[in-house]
Protein backbone atom coordinates (compact mmCIF):
# COMPACT_ATOMS: atom_id res chain seq x y z
CA UNK A 1 0.00 0.00 0.00
CA UNK A 2 1.23 3.47 -0.90
CA UNK A 3 0.71 4.72 2.65
CA UNK A 4 3.46 2.34 3.81
CA UNK A 5 6.34 2.91 1.36
CA UNK A 6 9.03 0.25 1.52
CA UNK A 7 11.99 1.72 3.40
CA UNK A 8 10.17 4.91 4.33
CA UNK A 9 9.15 6.06 7.81
CA UNK A 10 5.68 6.61 9.30
CA UNK A 11 3.86 7.39 12.51
CA UNK A 12 0.53 5.77 13.48
CA UNK A 13 -1.96 8.06 15.21
CA UNK A 14 -5.08 6.64 16.84
CA UNK A 15 -8.28 8.08 15.41
CA UNK A 16 -10.11 7.62 18.71
CA UNK A 17 -7.38 8.62 21.17
CA UNK A 18 -5.30 11.06 19.09
CA UNK A 19 -2.12 9.43 20.42
CA UNK A 20 0.68 7.55 18.69
CA UNK A 21 1.90 3.95 18.65
CA UNK A 22 5.05 4.22 20.75
CA UNK A 23 7.92 1.76 21.23
CA UNK A 24 8.43 1.70 25.00
CA UNK A 25 11.87 2.31 26.46
CA UNK A 26 12.19 -1.31 27.62
CA UNK A 27 12.23 -2.32 23.90
CA UNK A 28 9.42 -4.77 24.65
CA UNK A 29 6.12 -2.99 25.29
CA UNK A 30 4.05 -0.87 22.91
CA UNK A 31 1.82 1.92 24.18
CA UNK A 32 -0.11 5.01 23.17
CA UNK A 33 1.69 8.28 23.83
CA UNK A 34 1.08 11.90 22.84
CA UNK A 35 3.58 13.30 20.38
CA UNK A 36 4.53 16.14 22.72
CA UNK A 37 6.36 19.37 22.02
CA UNK A 38 9.49 17.41 21.10
CA UNK A 39 8.56 14.43 18.89
CA UNK A 40 10.25 11.16 19.80
CA UNK A 41 11.88 8.63 17.50
CA UNK A 42 10.06 5.98 19.58
CA UNK A 43 6.89 6.87 17.64
CA UNK A 44 8.56 6.22 14.26
CA UNK A 45 8.17 2.93 12.35
CA UNK A 46 9.85 1.72 9.16
CA UNK A 47 7.71 -0.38 6.77
CA UNK A 48 9.48 -3.33 5.17
CA UNK A 49 7.55 -5.09 2.39
CA UNK A 50 8.08 -8.81 2.15
CA UNK A 51 9.51 -9.83 -1.26
CA UNK A 52 6.78 -11.17 -3.54
CA UNK A 53 4.03 -10.12 -1.12
CA UNK A 54 3.22 -6.49 -1.92
CA UNK A 55 0.30 -6.35 0.52
CA UNK A 56 2.24 -7.77 3.47
CA UNK A 57 4.73 -5.67 5.37
CA UNK A 58 6.63 -5.57 8.65
CA UNK A 59 6.94 -2.51 10.88
CA UNK A 60 10.38 -1.94 12.37
CA UNK A 61 10.81 0.51 15.23
CA UNK A 62 13.25 3.29 14.36
CA UNK A 63 14.32 3.57 18.01
CA UNK A 64 15.50 0.05 18.89
CA UNK A 65 15.23 -1.83 15.59
CA UNK A 66 12.71 -4.36 16.90
CA UNK A 67 9.53 -5.21 15.01
CA UNK A 68 5.89 -4.65 15.90
CA UNK A 69 4.47 -8.11 16.60
CA UNK A 70 1.51 -9.95 18.11
CA UNK A 71 2.24 -11.74 21.37
CA UNK A 72 0.45 -14.56 23.17
CA UNK A 73 0.26 -12.49 26.36
CA UNK A 74 -3.19 -11.48 27.55
CA UNK A 75 -3.80 -7.76 27.61
CA UNK A 76 -3.74 -6.06 31.03
CA UNK A 77 -7.07 -5.59 32.88
CA UNK A 78 -9.18 -2.93 31.20
CA UNK A 79 -7.72 -3.71 27.75
CA UNK A 80 -8.95 -6.00 24.97
CA UNK A 81 -7.18 -8.81 23.15
CA UNK A 82 -3.50 -9.66 23.51
CA UNK A 83 -0.48 -7.41 23.84
CA UNK A 84 1.32 -5.90 20.90
CA UNK A 85 5.07 -6.10 21.51
CA UNK A 86 8.50 -5.30 20.08
CA UNK A 87 10.50 -8.37 19.04
CA UNK A 88 13.76 -9.29 17.35
CA UNK A 89 13.42 -10.82 13.88
CA UNK A 90 15.23 -14.15 13.71
CA UNK A 91 13.34 -16.06 11.01
CA UNK A 92 14.41 -16.31 7.34
CA UNK A 93 10.73 -16.70 6.43
CA UNK A 94 7.85 -14.32 6.93
CA UNK A 95 6.65 -15.05 10.46
CA UNK A 96 2.94 -14.74 11.26
CA UNK A 97 3.16 -12.52 14.37
CA UNK A 98 5.05 -9.87 12.34
CA UNK A 99 2.81 -9.80 9.24
CA UNK A 100 0.62 -6.71 8.73
CA UNK A 101 -1.83 -5.77 6.01
CA UNK A 102 -3.46 -2.34 5.77
CA UNK A 103 -7.06 -1.64 4.73
CA UNK A 104 -8.19 1.90 4.06
CA UNK A 105 -11.15 3.11 6.10
CA UNK A 106 -12.05 6.05 3.85
CA UNK A 107 -10.94 6.35 0.25
CA UNK A 108 -10.04 10.04 0.56
CA UNK A 109 -8.27 9.90 3.95
CA UNK A 110 -5.15 8.29 5.40
CA UNK A 111 -6.93 6.16 8.00
CA UNK A 112 -6.32 2.42 7.91
CA UNK A 113 -7.01 -0.73 9.90
CA UNK A 114 -3.96 -2.92 10.47
CA UNK A 115 -4.73 -6.60 10.12
CA UNK A 116 -2.85 -9.66 11.36
CA UNK A 117 -4.54 -13.05 10.80
CA UNK A 118 -8.14 -12.11 11.66
CA UNK A 119 -6.95 -9.70 14.34
CA UNK A 120 -6.64 -5.95 14.35
CA UNK A 121 -4.25 -3.53 16.00
CA UNK A 122 -6.23 -1.46 18.46
CA UNK A 123 -6.00 1.38 20.92
CA UNK A 124 -7.51 1.16 24.40
CA UNK A 125 -8.77 3.58 27.00
CA UNK A 126 -11.67 5.34 25.28
CA UNK A 127 -13.35 5.82 28.67
CA UNK A 128 -10.51 4.84 31.01
CA UNK A 129 -7.92 7.12 29.48
CA UNK A 130 -5.09 5.70 31.60
CA UNK A 131 -5.31 2.38 29.73
CA UNK A 132 -2.65 3.08 27.10
CA UNK A 133 -1.32 -0.37 26.16
CA UNK A 134 -1.60 -1.13 22.42
CA UNK A 135 -3.20 -4.53 21.80
CA UNK A 136 -4.42 -6.80 19.00
CA UNK A 137 -8.07 -7.91 19.08
CA UNK A 138 -10.68 -9.70 16.96
CA UNK A 139 -13.79 -7.80 18.02
CA UNK A 140 -15.47 -5.00 16.07
CA UNK A 141 -12.74 -4.84 13.48
CA UNK A 142 -14.85 -2.95 10.94
CA UNK A 143 -16.77 -0.74 13.34
CA UNK A 144 -14.77 0.82 16.15
CA UNK A 145 -12.52 3.83 15.64
CA UNK A 146 -10.23 2.31 18.28
CA UNK A 147 -8.92 0.12 15.43
CA UNK A 148 -8.38 2.97 13.00
CA UNK A 149 -5.01 4.65 12.53
CA UNK A 150 -3.95 7.72 10.63
CA UNK A 151 -0.71 7.10 8.74
CA UNK A 152 1.63 10.10 8.86
CA UNK A 153 4.56 10.01 6.46
CA UNK A 154 7.91 11.22 7.82
CA UNK A 155 10.52 12.81 5.54
CA UNK A 156 13.66 10.76 4.90
CA UNK A 157 17.13 12.23 4.65
CA UNK A 158 20.68 10.87 4.29
CA UNK A 159 21.79 13.58 6.72
CA UNK A 160 22.79 11.98 10.06
CA UNK A 161 20.90 13.03 13.14
CA UNK A 162 22.71 14.33 16.23
CA UNK A 163 22.97 11.82 19.07
CA UNK A 164 21.48 12.62 22.47
CA UNK A 165 24.22 14.11 24.68
CA UNK A 166 25.59 11.95 27.48
CA UNK A 167 23.94 12.55 30.84
CA UNK A 168 25.65 14.83 33.29
CA UNK A 169 27.54 12.95 35.95
CA UNK A 170 25.47 13.11 39.15
CA UNK A 171 27.18 13.91 42.40
CA UNK A 172 25.69 10.94 44.24
CA UNK A 173 26.65 8.12 41.86
CA UNK A 174 28.15 5.23 43.83
CA UNK A 175 30.48 2.68 42.25
CA UNK A 176 30.66 -0.72 43.89
CA UNK A 177 32.46 -3.79 42.52
CA UNK A 178 32.74 -2.10 39.10
CA UNK A 179 28.93 -1.90 38.84
CA UNK A 180 27.50 1.56 38.28
CA UNK A 181 24.69 2.28 40.71
CA UNK A 182 22.65 4.84 38.82
CA UNK A 183 19.22 4.96 40.41
CA UNK A 184 18.99 6.24 43.97
CA UNK A 185 15.59 6.73 45.62
CA UNK A 186 15.42 8.61 48.91
CA UNK A 187 12.66 8.10 51.50
CA UNK A 188 12.17 11.04 53.82
CA UNK A 189 10.29 11.18 57.07
CA UNK A 190 10.22 13.20 60.26
CA UNK A 191 13.09 11.22 61.81
CA UNK A 192 14.63 9.32 58.89
CA UNK A 193 16.26 9.71 55.52
CA UNK A 194 16.90 6.40 53.76
CA UNK A 195 18.36 5.77 50.30
CA UNK A 196 17.55 2.67 48.27
CA UNK A 197 20.10 1.92 45.56
CA UNK A 198 19.16 -0.13 42.48
CA UNK A 199 22.18 -1.42 40.54
CA UNK A 200 22.33 -1.60 36.75
CA UNK A 201 24.44 -4.59 35.79
CA UNK A 202 24.95 -3.46 32.20
CA UNK A 203 24.57 -5.41 28.96
CA UNK A 204 26.74 -7.33 26.53
CA UNK A 205 27.70 -5.44 23.37
CA UNK A 206 28.37 -7.66 20.38
CA UNK A 207 29.87 -5.57 17.62
CA UNK A 208 31.32 -5.98 14.15
CA UNK A 209 33.20 -3.62 11.86
CA UNK A 210 32.05 -3.07 8.26
CA UNK A 211 34.90 -2.10 5.97
CA UNK A 212 34.65 0.06 2.86
CA UNK A 213 34.02 -3.00 0.69
CA UNK A 214 31.07 -4.16 2.80
CA UNK A 215 32.89 -7.05 4.47
CA UNK A 216 32.18 -7.74 8.16
CA UNK A 217 34.92 -8.24 10.73
CA UNK A 218 34.04 -9.62 14.16
CA UNK A 219 35.26 -7.76 17.22
CA UNK A 220 35.48 -8.86 20.88
CA UNK A 221 32.33 -8.62 22.98
CA UNK A 222 32.34 -6.40 26.05
CA UNK A 223 30.05 -5.40 28.91
CA UNK A 224 28.71 -1.85 28.85
CA UNK A 225 27.35 -0.28 32.04
CA UNK A 226 25.49 2.65 30.56
CA UNK A 227 22.35 3.64 28.63
CA UNK A 228 23.94 6.54 26.74
CA UNK A 229 24.39 6.06 22.99
CA UNK A 230 26.96 8.90 22.98
CA UNK A 231 29.01 7.10 25.62
CA UNK A 232 28.71 3.84 23.67
CA UNK A 233 29.99 5.56 20.54
CA UNK A 234 32.93 6.96 22.51
CA UNK A 235 33.71 3.50 23.90
CA UNK A 236 33.61 1.90 20.46
CA UNK A 237 35.73 4.67 18.96
CA UNK A 238 38.39 3.95 21.59
CA UNK A 239 38.24 0.22 20.88
CA UNK A 240 38.39 0.77 17.11
CA UNK A 241 41.03 3.46 17.33
CA UNK A 242 38.92 5.63 15.02
CA UNK A 243 36.55 8.45 15.93
CA UNK A 244 35.10 8.64 12.41
CA UNK A 245 32.40 6.03 13.00
CA UNK A 246 28.61 5.64 12.85
CA UNK A 247 26.71 3.03 14.83
CA UNK A 248 23.97 0.81 13.43
CA UNK A 249 21.76 -1.63 15.30
CA UNK A 250 20.51 -5.04 14.17
CA UNK A 251 17.68 -6.52 16.26
CA UNK A 252 17.78 -10.15 15.20
CA UNK A 253 19.64 -12.32 12.72
CA UNK A 254 17.30 -11.38 9.83
CA UNK A 255 16.50 -7.82 10.88
CA UNK A 256 17.42 -4.79 8.82
CA UNK A 257 20.27 -2.76 10.26
CA UNK A 258 19.23 0.78 11.15
CA UNK A 259 21.20 3.78 12.44
CA UNK A 260 21.33 3.90 16.24
CA UNK A 261 20.14 7.43 17.03
CA UNK A 262 18.71 7.23 20.54
CA UNK A 263 19.81 6.04 23.96
CA UNK A 264 19.88 2.32 24.64
CA UNK A 265 16.74 0.51 25.80
CA UNK A 266 16.14 0.15 29.51
CA UNK A 267 16.88 -3.54 29.76
CA UNK A 268 19.91 -5.82 29.96
CA UNK A 269 19.44 -7.61 26.61
CA UNK A 270 22.61 -7.93 24.49
CA UNK A 271 22.88 -5.55 21.56
CA UNK A 272 24.29 -6.31 18.11
CA UNK A 273 26.09 -3.22 16.82
CA UNK A 274 27.52 -2.69 13.33
CA UNK A 275 30.27 -0.06 13.24
CA UNK A 276 30.38 1.79 9.90
CA UNK A 277 33.07 4.25 8.86
CA UNK A 278 31.47 7.66 8.35
CA UNK A 279 31.70 8.61 4.68
CA UNK A 280 32.15 5.00 3.47
CA UNK A 281 29.85 3.40 0.84
CA UNK A 282 27.93 1.65 3.63
CA UNK A 283 27.43 4.94 5.42
CA UNK A 284 26.14 6.60 2.25
CA UNK A 285 23.31 4.04 2.09
CA UNK A 286 21.91 4.96 5.52
CA UNK A 287 18.67 6.94 5.76
CA UNK A 288 17.37 8.89 8.74
CA UNK A 289 13.80 9.88 9.69
CA UNK A 290 13.29 13.60 10.12
CA UNK A 291 10.91 12.93 12.99
CA UNK A 292 11.09 16.43 14.48
CA UNK A 293 9.04 17.73 11.55
CA UNK A 294 5.49 18.72 12.60
CA UNK A 295 2.80 16.13 11.79
CA UNK A 296 0.19 16.66 9.12
CA UNK A 297 -2.92 18.51 10.37
UniProtKB/TrEMBL annotation:
Annotated source species: Zea mays
InterPro entries hit by this protein: Actin-crosslinking, DUF569, Ubiq_DUF569-assoc
Name the UniProt record assigns to this protein: Uncharacterized protein
Pfam families: DUF569 (PF04601), Ubiq_DUF_assoc (PF22932)
Domain of life: Eukaryota
Domain DUF569: 1-144, 202-276
SUPFAM superfamilies given in the database record: Actin-crosslinking proteins (SSF50405)
Signal peptide: none
Amino acid sequence: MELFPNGGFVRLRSRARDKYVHADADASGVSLRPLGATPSVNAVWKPEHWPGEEDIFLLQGAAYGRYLAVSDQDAPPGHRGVRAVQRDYNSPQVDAPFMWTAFRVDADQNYVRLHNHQRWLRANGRHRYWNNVVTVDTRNGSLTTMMQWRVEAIPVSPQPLPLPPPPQQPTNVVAYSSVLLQQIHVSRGLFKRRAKVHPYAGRMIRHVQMDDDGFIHDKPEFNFDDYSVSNLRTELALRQGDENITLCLRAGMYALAIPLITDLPHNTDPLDIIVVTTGSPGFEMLEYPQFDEPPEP
